[in-house]
Input
Amino acid sequence: MEREEIFTRLNNVFRDVFDDDSITVNDNTTADDIEDWDSLEHINLIVAIEQEFGLKFNMHDVTTFKNVGEMVNVISNYLNK
Amino acid sequence: MLLTSFSFWLFLAITLIIYFIVPKKMQWVILLISSLVFLFYDNFHLSTVLQALFILLITYIGSQKIYEYQGTKKSKVYLLLSTLTILGLLVYLKYSNLFLVIFNHFCNLVHINHHFGMVYHNTLVGISYFSLIMISYLLDIYHGAHKPQKNIFKLALFMSYFPILTTGPFIRYENVNDELYDKHKFNYHNLCMGLLRIAWGLFKVLVISQRIAIFVDGVYGNYMQFNGFYIVLAAMFFVIQLYTNFSGSIDIIMGVSEIMGITLPENFQAPFFSKTITEFWRRWHITLGTFLKDYIFYPLMKSDFMQGLNRKAQKFLSKKQAKKIPLYFSMLIMWILIGIWHGGAFTYIIGSGLLQFIFIFLEDILTPVSQKINKRLGINTETFGYKLYQVIRTFMLFSFAMIFFRANSLKEAFGIIQNIFVWNPWILLDNTSLYLVGLDMLDFRVLIIALIVLFGVDYLSLKMNVREKLFAQNIVFRWTVIYLLLFAIIIFGCYGEGFNPATFIYRQF
Output
């Protein structure tokens, strides 16, 4: 799956989880850019992404994502394994 | 070895001198030897040596096997075997009495005439800390965060690094391994910064914590004789005592490490400026919070059980509300575990566990309601006054919960709370009442000035690196501040009987 497609689907997940249709994520988006993205909402986001892409992150991935770009890299690695 | 004892400072001075004169590649060996001296200084017995060796060997073999079979089921089996063995030993050594109390209660309930006496195990200092640190090390290897350490002696240093054994902070292998085993040149700037941090820690512990403890012990020790504002004040003072004691000893630990060129994660971030209990816990014992979040809360939330709960809840609730059910459930489990971590007695489980959960739960469900009320009444929540009210409210709620934490039993805690309901604010203003609890007028004056300094520095620390800023000042101002701090510690420090200050509160955990 191309990064672009991953971004499109990921964007929908973000909008759904944070209940905000104005969200558009890019490589550099971090938790600081989205008001409700705190440590509690983070895990809901992770679960929603897992469901969307049919994958399971390992716990180390979950706690070390620095930005959405890293998230997309990990998703891409899982999908293209 | 207490962090404020003469023997610790002598030990530290010898360690630092040897650390910087031996060949650089030997520095980690010196750290290991010092750590072993520290670990067994007060408690050198066959049983404690065996406990340390056992945990070390289980972790070492476990980590190699987990890595060898990574990605297979065997890896998981080795992970479970090694972590559960360490956890089992920890529970056996630290929490046997909790189970015995529960069992005795159960026997009473069903009228079985059997009563187990409490047991005493000879345990190592810091066993709770390094057991959990080793479990996190094993989990991280399982998740592919890093490779296992091949040198068992280096692993032993990671496990027993002496400054953190008494009070933490929690460290993670991937964050400290480079600096722990690296070669470190003596650095004058690090020495100054480290010593300043140590002095600040000593100020917190000796000038504030040990002094305020006299009042707290006076009221809690004779709670039947005190009521109303005496108890309110003692409850608030206990929280300050806890904070200055705990964060002060962390400052000493961080300063010692900084001198050796080792950076540890921060454990506090001016918690008394928090506007909610949720925020408070993001700034208080941060490394424990992160540890529990990463290793318990997140895996719980990700589990099939919690996700199933979410799906079931969606049948009755909106999607947004349903999401909260596994969240609250996981948080409840995590807070009970925090209570257990703090000592395993019911006073801890309620004070530092359940009540904290209830506050956070109420904050979460009441925030939309209070937002509506504020909007309806036209209350501006961005004013200084409103924020001050939030900060004081958070402090008072936490102080209330800590009555349970400080009390010796639940019965005592409820007795203390009952005695609050007496209206006697004049004790704060007349010129004698407060001085009946062990602190005289001079002590109170010292305390008030010290607290202003503490909160002032905490506030500044949110905006800048206070120590770097101080070192950037001109030489007169810089040294005036440093001398004032040192004189305050020497003159106003409470050293207790025989210059051996009371045991650090947190050391027992």
User: Anything to note?
Assistant: The CA atoms of residues 31 and 38 of chain A lie 7 Å apart.
